[in-house]
Automatic annotation (TrEMBL):
Region annotated Disordered, chain positions: 402-426
Regions annotated as coiled coil: none
Designated name of the protein: Cation/H+ exchanger domain-containing protein
Keywords assigned by UniProt, alphabetized: Membrane, Transmembrane, Transmembrane helix
Presence of the UniProt keyword rRNA-binding in the record: no
Keyword Membrane: yes
Segments traversing the membrane: 12-34, 46-65, 77-99, 105-123, 135-158, 178-202, 223-252, 264-282, 289-311
């Protein structure tokens, strides 16, 4: 009974998906100590696996966003992407470059800039933030994830050149200068065009199947959609065409099998954590990791002072502090570290302990805040019925958790918000 109570208490503090990732990392560390894999990060299969895991996580982030709602509030999107994502990544990378004067810290700083949406979705049930503040944090995390992936991959070639090395990194565009970026953009456009063509074909098949079944049917088409997505992930992983994956996630949905994407993201998190443990056998670099973790956590607190007043007015003081302490790292930071390791050796040994620093700071600071709030409740908390920001209300409705119980499941899984007109799914 005592063990059960301890486990339940732990699950309320730390999402179970995070506990699972820690256990997977420890298992990988143990396996690595026994097997001692030689130059694992240098193999072609390793790069393909890292790219495939990255594609799964990236698609899982973008497919949860409603494209129609984004078009209706361009201002909110621009604020979230520029202030909430790009500026924060710039602050972290700038701190690391000033502290260590090494080009690789440009991309390492970007790699931990995102708020992990998987962890945010998992903590929604146990968090003491208001529903409005939770919606804002998840919206922020949803933009953080894909944008930081793309920034890290495209800036990797700049860091590669600044370090005085010849050639091109595996994670960045192939070729020199603007030609390399344009070529990479062209291949991404081709892949998106192929995905769009498959999407239209599958949608036509769904409608025909629905007409024959009197409005039902289409599950077979959903299965074909999953197969098509797996093919897309493999193609993107082989050439690191992650821009195509991010764009495809905005329109290519899998209908009745959408929960499989959530499970795939969780499995990818655990596989990536195990691979992280395998590489940690080579050791860690604690000083840069400590600075990186503190810089990421501090940048979130700093940038939230700019983002929160623009996107959401009238939050309580405690909500604003929770958002400032909202930095969490998870699947994307781990997989980016794995993907960057072949080009920037030692990345895993810095990013992995930095993730620990960020998450320890997050849980410790929020725990202290909750304990303090229990002793002296905030007198200025506004009622939940206050006017909602149209961007958050449309993209992430306040009643999403009630309409979709999985959104409040502390065991993990992406929050899924219903997109109006789900007929747009494949």
């Amino acid at each position: 009974m005592g063990a059960r109570l301890s486990w339940e208490r732990l699950s309320r503090i730390v999402p179970l998906i995070v506990v699972g990732a820690v256990l997977a990392t420890m298992a990988g560390l143990g396996a690595g100590a026994v097997v001692r894999p030689h130059d694992l990060a240098g193999s072609a299969r390793y790069s393909l696996l890292a790219g495939f895991l990255l594609a799964i996580g990236l698609y899982g982030s973008t497919q949860a966003i409603d494209l129609g709602a984004l078009r209706r509030d361009v201002r909110g999107v621009l604020v979230a992407v520029t202030l909430g994502v790009v500026l924060k990544a710039t602050v972290i990378a700038g701190v690391m470059l000033l502290a260590f004067h090494e080009a690789r810290f440009l991309v390492l700083g970007i790699a931990v800039a995102q708020i992990d949406p998987l962890s945010v979705a998992a903590m929604r049930a146990s968090s003491r933030m208001s529903e409005r503040a939770k919606a804002l944090l998840f919206a922020w995390a949803s933009f953080d994830d894909p944008v930081t992936v793309l920034l890290a991959l495209y800036f990797s070639i700049l860091a590669f050149r600044w370090s005085g090395r010849e050639g091109t990194p595996r994670t960045g565009p192939s070729g020199d200068g603007a030609v390399g970026y344009l070529t990479d953009l062209g291949w991404n456009v081709v892949l998106v065009a192929g995905a769009l063509l498959v999407f239209f074909v599958l949608r036509a098949m769904r409608r025909r199947a629905g007409a024959r079944a009197g409005g039902g049917g289409g599950r077979g088409v959903d299965l074909l959609s999953l197969v098509a997505l797996a093919g897309l992930f493999l193609i993107a992983a082989d050439s690191m065409l992650m821009l195509a994956v991010a764009v495809t996630g905005l329109f290519f949905r899998v209908g009745a099998h959408a929960e499989l994407i959530d499970r795939a993201v969780s499995v990818a998190f655990l596989v990536a954590s195990f691979a992280l443990g395998l590489l940690l056998v080579d050791g860690v670099d604690l000083l840069p990791a400590l600075v990186l973790g503190c810089a990421a956590f501090g940048a979130q607190a700093l940038i939230s002072l700019l983002v929160v007043p623009v996107l959401k007015h009238g939050l309580s003081r405690r909500d604003r502090v929770h958002l400032a302490l909202g930095q969490q790292n998870g699947i994307t930071a781990i997989i980016l570290a794995l993907a960057l390791e072949p080009d920037f050796r030692g990345t895993v040994g810095i990013v992995a302990p930095a993730i620990v620093v960020v998450n320890v700071l997050h849980y410790a600071s929020n725990g202290v805040l909750n304990r303090f709030a229990d002793r002296s409740p905030s007198p200025d908390a506004p009622p939940e019925a206050d006017v909602e920001d149209p961007f958050l209300a449309e993209v992430f409705p306040p009643d999403a958790a009630a309409a979709h119980p999985r959104a409040a499941d502390p065991r993990g899984g992406h929050l899924r918000t219903p997109a109006p007109g789900t007929d747009a799914t494949a």
